[in-house]
Design brief:
The complex is a heterodimer of chains A (416) and B (223). Chain A has 416 residues and is of the alpha+beta class. Chain A has 2 domains: 191 residues, no CATH class; 190 residues, no CATH class. Helix content of chain A is 54%, strand content 19%. Chain A is built from 15 helices and 12 strands. Chain A has a 6-stranded mixed beta barrel with strand order 2-3-8-5-7-6, surrounded by 4 helices. In chain A, strands 11-12 form a two-stranded antiparallel sheet. In chain A, strand 6 and strand 7 form a beta hairpin. In chain A, helix 2 crosses helix 13 and helix 2 packs antiparallel against helix 14. Chain B is of the alpha/beta class. Chain B has one domain: Rossmann fold (3-Layer(aba) Sandwich). Helices cover 34% and strands 27% of the residues of chain B. Chain B is built from 7 helices and 10 strands. A 6-stranded mixed β-sheet of chain B has the order 6-7-8-3-9-10, sandwiched between helices. Classes of the chains: A alpha+beta (416), B alpha/beta (223). At the A-B interface, helix 1, helix 12, helix 13 and helix 15 of A face helix 2 of B.
Chain lengths: 416, 223
């Protein structure tokens, strides 16, 4: 196939002033690289944070007795699930569901004999929770809930607890110490239990670690004098499948007097972070578009100034104004496409190289542990940065090109 | 019928705050097959007159007809089409497009016409042969001498078979021998194909080859 002379002309003109064009291409490519790296960094951060939030405590979907979401915080024991085993059996057959594990959450007091503080207590199934805390999907991340000292709860434990590390530190509790848990039973009476500290743990959330106590669910039921559970936490094989499972769950439990919430409705901090970073990224995109626009504008403008006589010539030879406009727009487009392609290639390679090493990050606000950031290569981001390069090239070459097409031919021919 | 018919042409320029009267009422009729020289000292209005005939500038007053068409009524696109079909240009500085080869420079005016690929190639090669540059097809302008460049420019001007070719000081940037050779190419085309040439010059040798000389002085025709 024959390459149109217009395109040949545009490509050759772009490379006529090599240094200038290379600087322009570098500016465009730099813009694309920044977008790919910054966007990839944000994406990776979001992903790690999302998985941490899910695997440290939330799980993918939580199931409650109807009314719990609205009124549960005031009267938690009024909304208990009576037949957890039956429901577990019912939903464990849903595709993508990995496991279902019960919880009872309540507040109470913890005393060491010297000090007493109010705590947030979770009665849990040790095996189920350990499965939830495993993060497989994120490179570098291992556990949503990690043991700092001692051991995690195991299935045979009864009067053992693990403490959030902030709580343990504040109370001066060590592994092997005994503590007293005090709380109201379901019926409203006061009850207390001696428990042995088996370990301390930490999660992504400092707030959680500063107040949380975990104990076997059987112990919690004994303390609260109940045989019911409060929440069923569902773990899905991949976070992406959450909605699909949610839909089937809703269908299965529709006449069971239950309600449910997926992780993203529970992860307020995560949602706000994503929104905040998203806005910042938008500003970054805007700034980069401006840089690309200015550099191409400058290049095309200078090139038109230098080639005024040439423009006069091609118009004298019978080119219409529109064709001159097209010629210079084509040059801008060639710059945009080349710069965009270079940027995507370089950005991808760079993202890959950075990810090989990883960026050590300090703990995010409200968290206790730092993490290793990677640059996620996101296809949509590659497309977006290429599009930004392309569109800003066209936008920025339009004005100089339009100006060129409006020249008076005789004046243009006199230009030296 | 006259191929060019200019009546009472005037053209004013603003140069800073002063108004310059480049043409002060020029009448000119050019008939078919003419090889016409426009002579006169610099500033006499030669280039301005050629620009107006070539429809690359508009007169302040007066009228021009090219091949019977009154150009004052035409839009910018119609003027472009008129130039593409009826007028060829040869410039003092050659004005070849530097990034295109000799072949592509000549081919350029043909791209807007619906001519089949192989026909176009054939035509361009013929044009290169006509000006004796068939072995320089792939050379870029900066790889050609001044005379060769001007011959490429002549081939480019001729490729769309215009009725008129306008040449503003076509030999001014060439040495005498090359200038004469270029002019001889032009003369031969004029005789063989009947293409009208209108060129400006102040070289007496060049004038001597013209079939008619129009003398300009201070924006007026004096003979």
């Amino acid at each position: 196939m024959e390459i149109p002379l217009d395109l040949k002309l545009a490509v050759r003109n772009v490379f006529r002033n090599k240094v200038r064009s290379l600087i322009t291409l570098a500016a465009i490519a730099f813009g694309c690289i920044s977008l790919i790296i910054a966007g990839g960094f944000f994406e990776d951060t979001f992903l790690q944070m999302r998985e941490s939030v899910i695997h440290s405590n939330l799980g993918h979907i939580q199931i409650y007795k109807k009314g719990y979401i609205e009124k549960g915080s005031a009267k938690p024991f009024d909304y208990m699930i009576e037949n957890p085993d039956e429901i577990e059996k019912l939903i464990s057959s849903i595709e993508h569901v990995e496991l279902i594990t019960p919880r009872i959450t309540f507040s109470g007091l913890m005393s060491t004999g010297e000090n007493t503080v109010s705590i947030f207590c979770q009665g849990i199934n040790p095996e189920g929770e350990q499965a939830i805390s495993v993060i497989e999907t994120v490179k570098g991340a291992t556990s949503g809930l990690a043991i700092e000292a001692g051991e995690n709860l195991s299935q045979n434990d009864m009067y053992n607890v693990i403490l959030g590390r902030g709580l343990a530190k504040a109370m001066g509790s060590k592994v092997g110490d005994f503590i007293i848990l005090v709380c109201n039973t379901v019926g409203g009476a006061l009850n207390a239990m001696d428990m042995k500290v088996k370990g301390t743990f930490f999660t992504i959330s400092k707030e959680f670690d500063d107040r949380a106590v975990r104990m076997p669910i059987a112990a919690a039921q004994t303390l609260l004098r109940t045989d019911k559970v409060q929440t069923l936490v569902v773990l899905v094989d991949k976070t992406e499948n959450t909605d699909q499972v949610k839909k089937q769950l809703l269908y299965l439990v529709k006449d069971k007097d239950l309600e449910l919430k997926p992780w993203y409705e529970l992860a307020d901090f995560y949602n706000k972070t994503v929104e905040l970073y998203g806005r910042q990224f938008l500003v970054l995109k805007f700034i980069i578009a401006i840089i690309v626009i200015l550099s191409i504008f400058n290049t095309i403008n200078m090139s038109i100034w230098e080639r005024t006589r040439e423009i006069g010539t091609i118009m004298a030879l019978g080119s219409r104004r529109r064709e001159v406009l097209k010629l210079f727009l084509l040059e801008g487009l060639v710059l945009g496409i080349l710069g965009g392609l270079i940027g995507i290639a370089a950005g991808t390679v760079l993202a890959y190289l950075i990810s090989l090493v990883g960026i050590p990050m300090p703990p995010p606000p409200g968290a206790t542990v730092g993490w290793t950031a990677h640059i996620k290569i996101v296809p949509q981001l590659l497309i977006a940065s290429f599009s930004i390069a392309l569109i800003s090239s066209l936008v920025s070459s339009f004005y100089p090109a339009f100006k060129a097409s409006r020249l008076i031919i005789a004046d243009a021919l006199r230009h030296f | 019928m006259d191929i060019v018919e200019a009546k009472a042409l005037t053209k004013d320029f603003h140069l800073g705050k002063t108004l310059i009267y480049a043409l002060k009422g020029v009448d000119l009729a050019v008939s078919e097959r003419e090889f016409l020289a426009i002579a006169g000292p610099s500033g006499s209005g030669k280039s301005t007159l050629l620009n107006l005939i070539g429809c690359i500038d508009l007169p302040t007053s007066g009228s021009i007809k090219i091949d019977g068409i009154d150009v004052s009524a035409l839009s910018s696109d119609e003027l472009a089409d008129l130039r593409a079909t009826k007028i060829g240009f040869i410039f003092q500085m050659f004005n070849l497009i530097p990034v295109l080869s000799a072949f592509e420079n000549i081919e350029y005016p043909l791209l807007r016409k619906k001519i089949k690929h192989h026909m176009r190639k054939e035509k361009v090669m013929d044009a290169l042969k006509n000006v004796g540059l068939e072995s320089f097809a792939t050379h870029k302008p900066d790889e050609l001498s001044g005379g060769q460049r001007q011959r490429v420019a002549i081939a480019r001007a001729l490729i769309s078979e215009p009725k008129i070719i306008l040449a503003d000081e076509p030999t001014a940037n060439l040495d005498h021998k090359t200038g004469t050779a270029v002019l001889e190419v032009m003369k031969k085309i004029n005789e063989d194909q009947g293409t009208v040439f209108i060129f400006s010059t102040h070289d007496p040798k060049v004038m001597s080859m013209a079939s008619r000389i129009v003398q300009l002085m201070d924006g007026k025709v004096i003979s």
